[in-house]
Every structure is written in structure tokens, then in C-alpha cells.
Amino acid sequence: MPLLPYFLQQVLEDRFRPIRRVDLATSRKVLRQIAPTWSGGRRRPLRAINRIIVHQTGIEFGVNDKQVKRAGSIAEAHRRRFLKVKYHYVVTTAGEALQIHPLERHTYHAGKRANRWTVGVAFEGRFPRFERERADRHTKLTSFMLDVYSSAFASILEDIHLILRTAEPGMAEGLPVSTHRQISKNRKADPGELLMQRVVIPAIPRTPAALDLDWVVGSGSKAPKEWRPGWGA
Ligand SMILES: [Zn+2]
Q: Per DSSP, what are the bridge partners of residue 119?
């Protein structure tokens, strides 16, 4: 809107800003490590990492009055709640990308066949396996928030790449990104079509990572066509 004075643009933007809008530029930098110190758990060398597994959390992390009272504020109660999550990274419904555990920590997000070698990245919320499913109990994200999720995911992939590259140059190039479904028959909807089409697939070309939807382990199954690039285009 070059014809309007700058201050008027700002006024209009504020007037029509959706409540949950998060600045994309901020979201890219907001990768906050909320548990930066080592506090036990099994340790692995960074060079053991050979894959990234994406998840949906299946829930939104609410906090109750008791937790807020104990923590002193809602923000602190949320922070404490996220510390209990076993994924290395979480993108929250507020559009923040959080690192919960250092990559050297062997956490429990994908079963014993995969935990040791993988990094777990989860999107907060309950999302449908397929968009045509009834979605009345699902987390509703605006188109803007789906873009924020995608941007946050790209930041996380870049972050992982930077950390691994410092450990061993070259090892992080083309690091495969797969889904929880490919490891477990009980997680067929993890992360689901909506997140794949709107968040995961658009983010990958902006990063050094590579999508791998055919790899299968144990009782897992390949990603269906609806989860693949170009589907429905
Ligand atoms: Zn999962």
C-alpha cells in the first residue's frame, strides 16, 4: 500500500490483525531452548543421528489453575508443561519453535527401534489424518498459522543442521525427514495429511533436509499418497 502514509498502514494493520498472529520474522528467530542444560537421561553421540521424525502431539497442552498458581504465571506453567514433553522440538499453537531437549539426549518419542538414532519434532495440536475427515474435535489453525508452523519447522531443520554440522561436517546434508506412521501401526495418523501438505512439505525445499516417505521400520507403513508432494495440486 505505497499510497498510504506509513503510520496509517500501521493503524490499519493493527486494526485487522488476527488475535493469534505471530510475526513470521520473529518466529524464524524464536527457536528458544527451554531446557538447555543436561539433566540426565541416556546420552548418544551427535553422529549417531541419522533421521528426523515428525509428529503431531495429538493434544493441545493446556494448564490448569493449580499448575498456574504453583508456577506463578500462565507462561511459566506452560514452560514447565513443555519440559515434560519427550520430543526434541515442539512447534506450539502460539507459533513458537521450542527446543526441549539437546540432540545428544536419547528421548522416547518413536519407539525403541528409532529413538536412538532420531530427532523428534512435534506440532502441537490434534490434526486429522485426512482433511476430508470430520474435524470437529481437531485443532483449527488459520491459513496464516499453518504458514507460521511451516516457517517454524524450517527453522528447526536449519537448527538441527547447524548443530550436526559443527559435530561432523557434511553429516547433516540431506538428513532424511520421515513420519511417526512409518514406525508404528498405532500412529497411522501421525502427523496427518494437513500437516504434511501445508507445513512439512513446503518447508523442506528451504532447508538442507530431504523428505523420505518410503522408509519403513517394524509395524510402520509408508506415507499414503495424500501425504506426498504434489498430491491434489
Ligand atoms: Zn508421534
A: 52
Is residue 47, in this structure, part of any structural domain at all?
A: yes
- Residue at 95 is within a domain: yes
Indicate whether 2 belongs to any domain: no
What Å distances lie between residue 210 and 50, 53, 191, 200, CA to CA? Answer: 12, 12, 17, 11
Side chain identity, residue 16 = F
118 φ, ψ (degrees, to nearest 5): -115, 160
pTM above 0.70, yes or no: yes
User: In CATH, what number is assigned to the domain containing residue 203?
Assistant: 3.40.80.10
| pLDDT over threshold 70, residue 25 | no
Ligand 1 centroid to residue 196 C-alpha, Å = 13
| Distance of CA 181 from the midpoint of ligand 1 (Å) | 7
Distance 184 CA to ligand 1 centre (A): 9
Tell me which residue of 9, 11, 14 sits closest to 1, measured CA to CA.
9
